[in-house]
């Protein structure tokens, strides 16, 4: 019987803490809606196109037309969209 009373008391305490829990840890949507939480707007970096070489990758701001087979990755529009 004593165990049941202790369990009921703990359950009551846990249920009573829910409003306090919401104030202490409001969640992502509530945090982002606060006026002090301004959006971090940054300019996108310029495109980058990287190609493998013997020693390391070489990266350029524009796609290299004759090096398409050596491309390892890119950031920005794909070369096909630019006509390369």
Your description of this structure?
- By secondary structure, this protein is an alpha+beta fold.
- The chain folds into two domains: 2-32; 48-82, no CATH class.
- The chain has three helices and three strands; from the N terminus they run H-H-H-E-E-E.
- The protein has helices spanning 2-16, 18-24, 28-32; strands at residues 48-51, 58-60, 71-75.
- A hairpin with a 6-residue loop joins strand 1 and strand 2.
- The radius of gyration is 28 Å and the shape is elongated.
- The protein starts with a helix and ends in a 9-residue tail after the last strand.
Layout of secondary structure:
Layout: H1 2-16, H2 18-24, H3 28-32, E1 48-51, E2 58-60, E3 71-75
Antiparallel strand pairs: 1-2, 1-3
Strand order of the largest sheet: 2-1-3
Tell me the number of helical segments per DSSP (H or I, 4 or more residues long): 3
Structural class: alpha+beta
Given the C-alpha coordinates, what overall shape results? elongated
**Poorly predicted segments:** none
Mean pLDDT: 82
Compute the number of strand runs: 3
The largest β sheet comes out as: 3 strands, antiparallel
Series of H and E elements: HHHEEE
The total number of structural domains is 2
Helix content: 25-40%
* Rg on CA atoms, Å: 28 Å
Distance between the termini: 79 Å
Oligomeric nature of the chains: single chain
Beta-strand fraction estimate: 5-15%
Fill in the keyword field for this structure:
alpha+beta, 2 domains, 3-stranded antiparallel β-sheet
Quick summary:
By secondary structure, the protein is of the alpha+beta class. The protein folds into 2 domains: 2-32; 48-82, no CATH class.
